[in-house]
Backbone:
């Protein structure tokens, strides 16, 4: 049997409830026995991994031999890829654990605020070093649940921010990052975190035009939701994906459920009367019901306090598309021009690409959008 590589990456099995209970007792015999059980190792191979004889490992596991030397315990922690504190050892790398957790949580909150304020590029700048730091801690054996939970959130947040600032041909990158966060959330068994990650992963998959997987992830996020707000956010994104895929029945069902949740769920930046209207309007147009979309356009609500700049830009593009298909070129031009200015100011190339596609009958708007997109591409390349 091949000896396990102690530097092979995150040991997910240390995040299970049983493993966490064993680690919390700081019992070296139990930890060694558990490690051998997980890797199907005889005492001889564990001894070879740690540099001890088989008989010595046997005595340690039975408790007839106690290891108290800090150097020896630190060596075992390194070889098993565990943080030293599980053996009662503190060092510089482990001593700042709580500070790292607090710092990471603050950065994630700040990045979310910055992104919702329309500065997604600044959010990316905040999140890159945080993700790198958390990845390094996990690779060094810090697989405590709170570290992995933060890593999952950071990966998802980075993916969402990238989904704002990358052009369409590179949106798969954003989906990969949200997918990495979803993988951790699933392994941790945290239902709320898993639902959160699935919502954003499904939405990034939709933007990358991977509509089948997007619908699957968003349906699961809806089913895992613990609160009306979680379910509402999943449902609105599910409606968005179903409309993009042209799945009329699934779209209508999700829109109807979302309408029912407007009273049950508190408004969030993702789910509100304004965002529900935009998703409904775009889905009607996407499923070929232009007359219904035009009637709905006349009932557009005002943006609320929760409505982000990006949602207002998205809504302007959608309204412009419907107006253009109605033949109202003047009103369509007004909406599209406002969207171009907003997308350029907030560095949203994906939205500029939407304008380019939607303004074929508006050459001056299309030219302005293409020029703004070229400037953003140059900035991204630099």
Residues:
């Amino acid at each position: 049997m091949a000896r396990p590589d102690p530097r092979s990456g995150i040991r997910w099995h240390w995040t299970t409830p049983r493993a966490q209970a064993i680690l919390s007792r700081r019992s070296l015999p139990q930890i060694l026995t558990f490690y051998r059980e997980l890797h199907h190792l005889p005492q001889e191979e564990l001894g070879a991994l740690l540099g001890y004889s088989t008989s010595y490992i046997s005595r340690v596991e039975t408790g007839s031999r106690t290891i108290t030397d800090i150097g020896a315990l630190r060596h075992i922690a390194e070889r098993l890829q565990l943080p030293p504190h599980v053996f009662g050892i503190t060092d510089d790398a482990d001593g700042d654990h709580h500070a790292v957790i607090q710092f990471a949580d603050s950065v994630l909150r700040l990045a979310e605020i910055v992104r919702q304020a329309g500065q997604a590029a600044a959010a990316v700048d905040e999140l890159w070093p945080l993700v790198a730091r958390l990845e390094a801690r996990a690779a060094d054996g810090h697989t405590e649940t709170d570290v992995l939970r933060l890593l999952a959130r950071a990966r998802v947040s980075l993916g969402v921010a990238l989904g704002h600032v990358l052009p369409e041909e590179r949106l798969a990158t954003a989906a990969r990052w949200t997918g990495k966060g979803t993988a951790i959330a699933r392994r941790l068994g945290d239902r709320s975190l898993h639902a959160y990650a699935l919502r954003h992963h499904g939405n990034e998959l939709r933007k990358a035009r991977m509509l089948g997987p997007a619908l699957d992830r968003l349906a699961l996020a809806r089913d895992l939701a613990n609160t009306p707000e979680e379910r509402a956010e999943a449902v609105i994104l599910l409606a968005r994906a179903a409309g993009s895929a042209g799945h009329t029945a699934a779209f209508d069902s999700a829109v109807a459920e979302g309408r029912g949740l407007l009273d049950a769920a508190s408004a969030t930046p993702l789910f509100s009367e304004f965002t529900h209207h935009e998703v409904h309007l775009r889905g009607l147009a996407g499923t070929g019901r232009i007359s219904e979309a035009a009637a709905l356009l006349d009932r557009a609500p005002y943006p609320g306090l929760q409505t982000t700049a990006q949602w207002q830009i998205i809504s302007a593009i959608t309204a412009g598309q419907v107006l253009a298909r109605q033949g109202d070129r003047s009103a369509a031009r007004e909406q599209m021009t406002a969207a171009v200015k907003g997308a350029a100011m907030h560095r949203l190339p994906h939205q500029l690409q939407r304008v380019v596609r939607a303004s074929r009958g508006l050459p001056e708007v299309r030219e302005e959008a293409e020029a703004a997109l070229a400037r953003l591409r140059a900035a991204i390349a630099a």
